[in-house]
Amino acid sequence: MKNRATQKTILIIGASRGLGYAMATEFVTKGWHVIGTVRGKDRTLLHQLADKNPERVEIEQLEVTEPQQIKALRERLSDKVLDILFHNAGIANKYQSESIAEVSTREFEQVMVTNALSPMRVIECLQDLVSATGTIGVMSSGQGSVSNNRNGGHEIYRGSKAALNMYMRSYAARHAGESRTLLLMAPGWVATELGGAEAPLSIEESIPKVVKVMLSQQGKPGLQYLDREGKTVPW
């Protein structure tokens, strides 16, 4: 096992299942120390991973839509130095075939707050924990690409990811000249609870590639919007 002084650390926001859990597993396999967040107190897949790797996996509780919980997490992690901060948590509206005019105001707000506002709150609050040459990343989506939207559909989810991309562009502009790597990752349409059973990609076909791309970008300053193959996604 690597010495904790030399072992790299990633904080994954939203790691209890799906893409986040798969990412945690992949980083553990690569010898990293993983801090993963879960929403509630119930046992999750991440807890099972921690049971098998007690020296490499820590679990923190966080509801990303609650600013006070974000601040409390920052305090609990105040002695940590993160090589990567990655925000994975996200949701979709229940009926994704709804148009923007059909979705309820409440559900629209829930999706936008969870997918666009909360990641930026987390980044702003926790950024000082990330090393000066570290990486700050967010799980975006190819559906957040405005120029690639030729077929419509999934309007509320698309809009939330497009908004997230814009806010990360603004964040990058405010931090121009800094050495950190900033990433918006598009994993593809993956068969998860959010992606649905009809999605063409398995988690195993997506996440190892996402992690490989993330690691390949370490030490490259500025913001990039990349897919799982490392190709630039049009804004």
Structural account:
With 235 residues, the protein is an alpha/beta fold. Helix content is 37%, strand content 19%. It has six helices and seven strands; from the N terminus they run βαβαβαβαβαβαβ. It has a seven-stranded parallel beta sheet with strand order 3-2-1-4-5-6-7, sandwiched between helices. The mean pLDDT is 94.
Return Rg in Å.
17 Å
**Between the first and last Cα atoms, what is the distance in angstroms?**
41 Å
**SSE string:** EHEHEHEHEHEHE
The class by helix and strand makeup works out as alpha/beta
Secondary structure tally: strands = 7
Write the layout of secondary structure elements.
Layout (H helix, E strand, L loop, with lengths): L8 E5 L4 H12 L3 E6 L6 H8 L4 E5 L5 H10 L5 E6 L17 H22 L3 E10 L15 H20 L6 E6 L16 H14 L5 E6 L8
Helix pairs in contact: 1-6, 3-4, 4-5
